[in-house]
User: Fold these one by one.
Assistant:
Number 1:
Amino acid sequence: MKKAILIFTFLLLASVNISYSQFGNSRAILTATGEGRNVTFTALAPCDTGNTGFGGIILCTLDGVINTPFFCLDLCTGINLGDTVKDSSSTIPQAIYITNTYYPSRTSYPGKMTSNNDEACAVQLAIWHFRNGLDVTTGVGEISGTNDAAIKARTLVIIADVIANGGSTTHVSTIAIK
């Protein structure tokens, strides 16, 4: 009986600890747009947030640190400057791979576009492809600037890289109860 109570108590404490850690998100205040381009969408399945948006880095004040770069992970959620959002520590593996492999986390790698505005836009479009099913070839109209075709081509290269290298992760178990 004592063993059963001890195991139950351990499991209860372990589950409470996990629950609190999942809600330990940081609050970010959107302060400005960084590198990127304005994008006009021709189709917005599965959401309808309008026909234009900013594809690129948004700058936030996070835990008192100004100009922390973020990418908007969800095309279907409208955010504006001055909004306070929560930075979720969990997202899809493809977005994690993209943000760890490409600009601004890394500033030099093969295939990077010479313009950080163009590269940030391509990275954002790739994230929206995996997160929201954005079809870059038919769902994206004009991109501000003059590199529409190059940005779309770069986005497709990033998507292909993610499919080949970043779509799966292995969860490491730290404890197993049998």
Number 2:
Amino acid sequence: NMLSAKVDVWTKTVNEVLSDGTDYSFLFSLGDQINEYYAQDGSNLSKVESEYSGFFNNENLQSIALATLVGNHDNGNNSTLYTEHFQMPGVTSYGQNREGDGDYSFTYGGVQFMVLNTSNLSIADHKAFLEDTLKKNPNANWNVVSFHKSIYSVASHVTEGDIVQLRTGLSPIFKQLGIDVVLQGHDHVYARSYIMGGEDGMTADVQKNEDGTALTDIYQPNGVQYVTLNSGSGSKFYKITNEAFTYTAVQNQEKVPNYSKVSVTPDTFTVTTYRTSDQSVVDTFTLHKNAKDPE
């Protein structure tokens, strides 16, 4: 039974995350909570529902707040199933495919999370949502955008039309609006960009350590940090394409489920990504608001 094997890995990942002694605020799943596309004639409803059950199967999930966003698999044929299983706070009509799945935001611990439905390709909608949200809450320490369809990935989706449209449309807007971090999914690999800026929001600020490795501390970033997260359930991995992407500081695919921990202070934003196999670190970095103290 393929499904139960996937559910077991997802359950193991969640258990591992929650049993490591950290007092987490919430768990954030960046789309595709299920894999099965709901068919227009409803013929595969029981399979779709069994995947939802598998996602929720873990009693440990009851001990932590859960945030989700809509991925293309959740959105199969604009079904109501996603919004029946997940209710998001403060959902707007911007970026919606159907009622209840539009762009939404929440703030936690000084971080404002602005969540886009990238099954909707309206750049104007997403821009209006971001502008509205930032006007209403201009004082967050960190402004983070999250959505499913990664625009700075290193796997197969990166050249597809919808991704190109989102990248060319959204990157300049994120830079103009002063977004700090963008968390993304969809491409089943781990990738960390350089800080992206310039007029078009797409110019990589290529800074490395002297030995050529990626920075672990980035001071006063002038632009946007993009992160693409790998699969947490291990149900699907994509291979990194062999093109060289000038925007990528770190990329990793070992076909091991990953999870990432985010920890935040008013001055720092840290993302550390782990392998579920042995809790070793795939990548870690910290953004610093301030300049580095002189040695």
Number 3:
Amino acid sequence: RFDISNEWLNKITDFITQMPKNIDDYEKIITNNPIFKERTIGKGIMHKQTAIKYSITGPNLRASGSDLDLRKSHGYAIYPELDFISAVSHRSDSYGRYEVRMQEMRTCLSLIRQCILWLKSNNETNTVSNVKPFNFKVPEGEYTSYIESSRGLLSCYIKADGSEKPYRVKWRTGSFYAVQVLPELLKGHTMCDIMAVFGSLDVIIPEVDR
């Protein structure tokens, strides 16, 4: 609710300068760890056809070899002005989903840095004081909007009759759809594989039971 200060942006800059080293440290511990690889490589395989069948999006889909990223394909907000490559893996297993998320952390730092530079060069035209208050009333009709969130497609469907509040609002989240595919990914595996495979889908429970 306040204008973004240079001091605040500088703190973020300090964080994204330090974070790549932290990610390197994480990778030294995890990426080539034989126990981690044994528990994830070849486990929870989700081929592209299966991912599409279950409406999987985001990192879980890109870990199955499908280079679908709404930030690229639909270019909303400031994304068309940013330089980045979507993380994709063709492994299709739990380890591939881990690889994609490690790549995405590095991509995220690059995006933040570019946004900071954009904000600093446009700080006169993008301030809270320039945003005028308004009364939001949804006109009669049906509307759908969506973004690429950290766990896949996040979409909102609204149906309104022109009254003060819409009478139907439905959210679609990446976690909600990822839960459906879990039984398919666990076929042929043992009980001890459940947590590793489930964890690789990066499900947030409040997104499922919302």
Number 4:
Amino acid sequence: IHDSKTTKVQRAIVIGPGPKTEGGITEVIRRVVDEFNAAGDVSVEWISTHCSGTGLQKIAAAAKGFVSAKRELPRANLVHIHSSANISCYRKSAFFMLAKLFSKPVIWHLHSPNEDFERFFGAEGMGARFAKAVLASSDRVVVLSDTWLDIVRPYVPVEKVEVIENPIPNVPDRGSDERVQGRILYLAHLIQRKGYPLLIEAFAEVADRHPLAKLVFAGSGEVEEAKKLGEALGIRDRIEFLGWIGEPARTEELSKASIFALPSYQEGLPMGILEAMAFGLAVIVTPVGGIGDVVVDGRNGFHMKPGDADSLASALHAVLSSDETCRRVGGRAKDDVQKYSASSIAAKWRQLYEAVLSEQTEVIFNGHKR
């Protein structure tokens, strides 16, 4: 990150899902904003552009956010937009144009699944050209891992791209080991892209060999479909559905589980994986998006082939058969992700803000217009 000159950050507007919205982006923003608030050196106005609910409620949330942004922008130094691809990009582009109207520098923070990003930004037509222009015109584009540098390279000048990973939670000292051996946690939305049907099918393959094992789904989405699949495979009594959980239930589940599984087909860098590693779970994942930059197969977790139920079943059987393997791999995972602490990631945001504002100051000082 450029740091030849720093500028005190007086006020930043962060655009993204609201504090009460389900999803990993909300947790990313919350953890860093909490660090800023504790330090007192960065003032953040968190403006919600999205909420959980009906289509009408989501439109109302976006409109309310736009009005708030227009009101707050005159007092802001910069705008930090968190976006996925597709409709999320179009929705956030309205805030981008508003920020530019007020001559504010914009940081565009990408949280998109990898294939969605490549399909969306690699498409032909006016929509894709507009999205690429917004991305290229941002003062900085933040990506979640080194792999993402290569993914965005065709669309953004490399000197504008910064790698800033997602933050892990502050793990409380529980005082005693509450792990339940054989408790497998899935912490994410139940959607096809996340591979939840594959996990149920793979668990059905190994359930008889591990009669004490249990599969726990913590997430909203296609819960009824998942229940029906469990019934059809004869393992419904071995699966628990918690729905979407916030704190303190999230911490409780991460403290109890011994294994974490997320067989996604495409990803950015999922918060659930980082959280599971921070709590010392043995994670089984697909090395898609930025996951392979964090989870090293056989060291701090296990890779499986995307879409391969047999590959997942083999990994599940291996960790269910050895408590020692769970503890060893989980311990390494916990050690390896400490560099993604909320304080460390907040420091990276802060340095980026200072660099962007420093560059803007230099442009104004030299008499150039943006």
